[in-house]
Structure formats: structure tokens, C-alpha cells
Amino acid sequence: MSRILSAVAWPYANGPRHIGHVAGFGVPSDVFSRYMRMRGHDVLMVSGTDEHGTPILVAAEAEGISPKELADRNNRIIVEDLVGLGLSYDLFTRTTTVNHERVVQSMFETVRDNGYMIVQTTSGAVSPTSGRTLPDRYIEGECPLCGFGDARGDQCDHCGNQLDPTDLINPRSKIDGEIPVFQETEHYFLDLPALADELSRWLDEREASGLWRPNVIRFSQHLLEDIRPRAMTRDIDWGIPVPGWEDQPNKRLYVWFDAVVGYLSASIEWARRIGEPERWRDWWNDPEALSYYFMGKDNIVFHSQIWPAELLGNNGAGDKGGEPGELKQLNLPTQVVASEFLTMEGKQFSSSRGVVIYVRDVLSRYQPDALRYFISIAGPETQDSDFTWAEFVRRTNSELVAGWGNLVNRTCAMIAKNFAEIPAPGELEEIDEKLREQVLAGFDKVGSLIENHHQRAALAEIMRLVGEANAYVSATEPFKLKDPSQRERLATVLHTLIQTVSDLNTMMCVFLPHSSNALDAVIGGAGDIAPLPVIEEVEDLDGGDPYPIITGDYTNLRPWASVEVVVGTPIAKPKPVFTKLDPEVVEEELARLRGEAGE
Fold this sequence. Notes:
The chain is built from 19 helices and 18 strands. Strands 3-2-1-13-14 form a 5-stranded parallel β-sheet, sandwiched between helices. A 3-stranded antiparallel β-sheet has the order 4-8-9. The protein has a 3-stranded antiparallel β-sheet with strand order 6-5-7, with no helix packed on it. The chain is 44% helix and 15% strand. The protein starts with a strand and ends with a helix. The protein is α/β, with parallel strands linked by helices. The chain is elongated. The longest helix has 30 residues, at 389-418. Helix 7 crosses helix 11 (300-315).
């Protein structure tokens, strides 16, 4: 048994999340975590809402409310949406807790005292109208290296190079198009060059392991070619105060430092909430523990350079040496599991342009597992993929309803009609044994694919086995075995089918937890094969405001193996678990999309 940290990217709380977000961080992390728990590993899955920074201030000001009010509202929306999707967090918290602030400041002090935070004077972008400092990502312009016209002030998404706002040609504010004014200001910078050799050595080890996705390791190594100190503080009054600069209330730690520490602070909060305050160290201080970080590709830089550098600085592992503080030696990521982008109807998601479908809207109109299925079977695992309503409807109807759902329904309907309970099998024939062998082999094959983050292939293999089971029905024709002399053969075929359905549902439950619970009940189980997360209203552990968390009890799990069905279990005539979609849904949704885009 291994200890597995599933570190899931923190959704930003400036608004609801759309399906492109959960395709990158949400569903892949949940599938992996559920599978590893079923294999008997000790999994800790943590995340929360990222609530500091200028975008929150800008959005709050536009609504005439405080940043905290905006963060509170969006935190709750995001929490409800992620629970609706069935994401099995051990703890989903937020960055505005007192616990988070203390952990962030503690780590900052250690990195600073070890010499890896240096004070430098820099030019900061300021709005000439409001006087507010603009974050790097809110400055756009032409990339000086490749000429891309919409490069950001921290990175060019076209060529992948890191930038500063002052590097951009014809810079402009993304908020209102203003030309920013650049003013000199002092900030703490993370001394990445002093950590570059250790970063390079760590990435080379990751490449040698052969486990990282090639696009992620290549991009990460490319970042080392232009490594420079990066500012870790900002001129802003919404965020975590900078230790030692308490006399400068308008200086705050930048979210580049703040948010990624959330994986650690959430682990510490989880341990405190279960009454074992040092338990988090099992995942962070034990060098044998494994950690997997899930995100979209736009977050690679933070997880393969910034966060590892902060960890190395805390550990005193750079050119300047140093000693770990009270957090002790912290583990670096085992793997950065970054997905590519999900587009929508051929266009990039854009809330401002109305090219968007929020998680909440999908869950209000469709089954959560229909969305989970699409993301898992057709999502942006290693290359960009496109969400279209036509494909969503096609896959739901032809694969979930007509493939998997039909296998379950006709298996249970035939058992209910002929036996009313799971029948005892007679002697298996070659065709029965062949199907059972394929399904049993599926546990290893599917499990290996999930463990190595090939979830599309894993779900495709399960659906291939569904196809084999449906072909078995066509070949054995149990609906024709009506003569009393054929009753034992009928019982054998139907027992083989119900065992196959049960096994496939075990594999499927990591992808489709809601429907797997419903299907488990249909075939005579308790309907709890895939434990679901819950929302709890909690008090801040250190006296701050109360807030909702996502948590759950994921200990009562079926093992990742075939569990023999119980002969004599009553089986009633089933009702369909999956909802078939009317083809008119496509035009309805496209019309809604056009309306929101103002076309």
C-alpha cells in the first residue's frame, strides 16, 4: 500500500467554473483517486478555491461588493457544482482561511531565511485611471520573441516563453484596454536561478522515469532555458500580508506563492479536522509517499517550476543551501498530470464572449455522469479536444444508453422475467468462459491504464468489454431459451451476464459514480459502490468566518476485483438508469449559446 496525494488545481473564485475547467483538473483527478482507493492505497485528495489577487478585486468592484463577499458567493457555487459532479475530495477548502494564511507565511519565512527570496526593484504595471496594480496576466501585447499578438505579461501561450509585462510590445490592460503606466516598486522575488540546477536535476529524473506525459516534460524543461527571478509579492490590499513588511499594508504575497501552498495547507487543515494534527506529514515528509498534481496545461509553469522551486527553497536544496523550517523536508511532485485545452464548438471558452457552458448549467439539464463520460472518453488528455452538443448527444445515446445501459436493462429484465432472482449457473461452455476471461483480464488492463493516466483508453477498454457482452447476448440468444430442457442453460447464460455486468460496473464506478450506484441497486446491491462527497458547513479552525467544505467517507469500498454475485438475490424489472436525449437538444443548446454570445 502506498500513500497517494492527489493535489487538484485550485479553481479561481472570480466566477463559476465552466466544463473546460473540470475537464482539466476535476474529472481526471477523481477517476484516479477513486481507482487508487479501490486498489487499497491511502489517498488524500485536496484542493479548494483560490480567492486572492486583482481579478477578484476587479470583479467585486464591478458589482459594488467587497472581495470577500464575491469570494464567499463563488466559493459556495463552486463547492455545490463540484459535489454535484461527484468529485471525491477528502477536503476542498479555500485560501481565505486563517490556517492557510499561517502555513503560507511560515513557508515564505523559511524560503526567505534560506536566501531564496530576494528584494529587487522592478517596474510594476499600474492602471492610469484607478491607480491599481495590474497583475501580469492582465497585461496583453505582442510577444517580442515570436510576434504573437495576444501574449500575456507572464507568459506567451504561443511559444511558451516566460515574459514580464515590460517585455511586451504595445502592452494593454486586459480589463479595459488602457495602456498601463509602469512605476518602480520593491518586491520579493523567488530566486529561481539559484534553484535552477536542482530543478533541472529533478526534471531530468522525472523524464528518466518515463511516467510524465511528453508534452508536459518538454514544456517544463523548456522553461529552464529562460529562468529568472519571479516576483512573489504585489502592490495590492487583498491577499496574505508579507511577513516582515507589516508596515506596508498594500503589499501582499502574490497568488503565485499563495495558491500553490494550498495543497500543503489543505492537507494540514484536513489533519486538524480529523483530530490528528500531524497526520499530513505522512504525505509530505515521508519520501516514499507519492504525489500527483492535476491541472490544465496553462498551469504547468506553476507546478513544474514555481511550486517545486518553493519546495526546494523550503528544503534548503538550492545553491545557497539552508535548512527546512517547522514544515520539515517536503516532497516534490511525483508527477504533474496536465491536460490540454477543451474547446467548445470549435472556439476557445470565453465567459466574456458568451462561448461557455458552466458546470452548473450542464448539471441542471443533464445527468452528471453524461458529462463525466464525455470528458473521460473524449476529453483533452494529451491534445486539445472539442466539446460539441452533437457529439455529447451522440455519445450519451449510442454509448451510455444503447450500449452500457441496454446491457444492464436487458440482463436484469430477462432475469426478472424468468427467475426473479440471480440464478445458479450450470456448467460453463466455451463461449461463457471466453467472456469471463476477457472481463477478468480487464481489471488489470483498465487499472494499469488509469494508474498511468491513460483514462480515455481505460474507459474505451471498458466500453469494448460492454460490446463483447452485448455480442455474447446476440450469440447465446437467451431470449430464445424457453423450453424447460433449456432452463439450466438459460440460468448459466444469465448468471454469466449478471456477473459480467457487476464486474463492468465495478470498473465503471470510478468514471460514473452516480449511475454505478444506481446500477448496483438494480442488480441487487446496496447502491453504494461509489461513495459520494458531501458538503459540510464548518467553523474556521482559527477563528475566521465559517464556510462550506467538501469532504466524504471513502473507506467502505469495493475492491478493484471481481466480486462474486450472490445466487438468490432478488432482481426486479429495471428502470433505465441513463436518460436518452432528444436530438433537438443540439439545436436548443446551440441557440442558447448564440444568444449568450450576442450573435
